[in-house]
Amino acid sequence: MNNRKVIIEIVAYNIESAMKAQEGGADRVEFCDNPAEGGTTPSYGAIAQVRQHLNIDVFVMIRPRGGDFLYSVEEYHAMKKDIEACKRLSVDGIVFGILKADGTLDKEKCKRLIDFARPLKVTCHRAFDMTKDPFQALEDCIDAGFDKILTSGQQQKAIEGVDLIRELILKANGRIVVMPGSGIDEGTVKEIVSKSSAAEIHFSARSVRESKMQFRNDKIGGMGTDEGKNWEIRTVDPERIRAIRGMVSG
Question: What is d(CA 201, CA 213) in angstroms, rounded to the nearest whole number?
Fold first, then answer.
């Protein structure tokens, strides 16, 4: 590796995870809800608590539902109201993306929300990975005013899309930050950073802890589904962040 500092962003799906991310030395948190859907907008109260307890940058996911990134008029206005709430809570940035049905970035709607969000920083999330032409999407993101793009290189995992990520970083030429994310861990981070020359990376440092509940009704597998796990709490492992930091700093 080299001696340049790689910025580490940790995705956090609850308040505890965000606090653990800071404990582990993360530079920034992407705060979301609903990991099963790939992240949706967290509650106002949760955002407020994270902002109160973290002194690192907090970026908030603005995504009104799971599924695709083709939003109705009502969903668009919900996103605008959530951005307004984020500004009121003094977070540092937001994360969103809007596509058209033909697989292109909806540059006009994105630009309107970005202009409304300022002075917050704005990242285009992995809606980017669902576009039909990543190089056109790169230019559209720049034209719309995004500061960063989070991408797996249009593959399931960033390690599989690292060649495209490298090409995107070269094509961007400093005009926008292209940040690899998805599946980055101790086994892949060196190769991804080395091959792509990425200046920022995004990962989860995921850990699971046991519930502290003493009484457990084991007849219920999960709230709303029999696939859930009521007795496991998703969190972040600070030691994993430190370990990965060491791998990209030495």
Answer: 35
Q: Which domains does the chain have, with CATH numbers?
A: 7-245 (3.20.20.380)
Are 25 and 245 contacting, i.e. CB atoms less than 8 angstroms apart? Answer: yes
Instruction: Please give the mean pLDDT across all residues of the chain.
Output: 95
At residue 250 the predicted structure's pLDDT band, cuts being 50, 70 and 90, is: low
Report how far residue 10's alpha carbon sits from residue 21's, in angstroms, rounded to the nearest whole number: 6
DSSP string covering 164-210, please? HHHHHHHHHTTSSEEEEBSS--TTTHHHHHHHH--SEEEE--EEEEE
Q: Which residues pair with 200 in a beta bridge?
A: 7
Rounded (5°) CA angle 93-74-92: 5
H or E stretch including 31? Answer: strand 28-31
Residue 83: pLDDT over 60 = yes
**pLDDT at 188 exceeding the cut of 90:** yes
Residue 216 one-letter amino acid:
R
**With bands split at pLDDT 50, 70 and 90, how would you rate the model's confidence at 1?**
very low
Report d(CA 221, CA 119) in Å as an integer. Answer: 44
pTM to 2 decimal places: 0.95
Query: Is the peptide bond between 238 and the residue preceding it cis, with omega within 30 degrees of 0?
Result: no
Count CB neighbours of 94 within 10 A.
Answer: 25
* Vertex 57 angle, CA 204 and 31, to 5°: 45
Residues with Cβ within 8 Å of 241's Cβ and at least 6 positions away in sequence, in order, are: 8, 10, 21, 24, 25, 26, 205
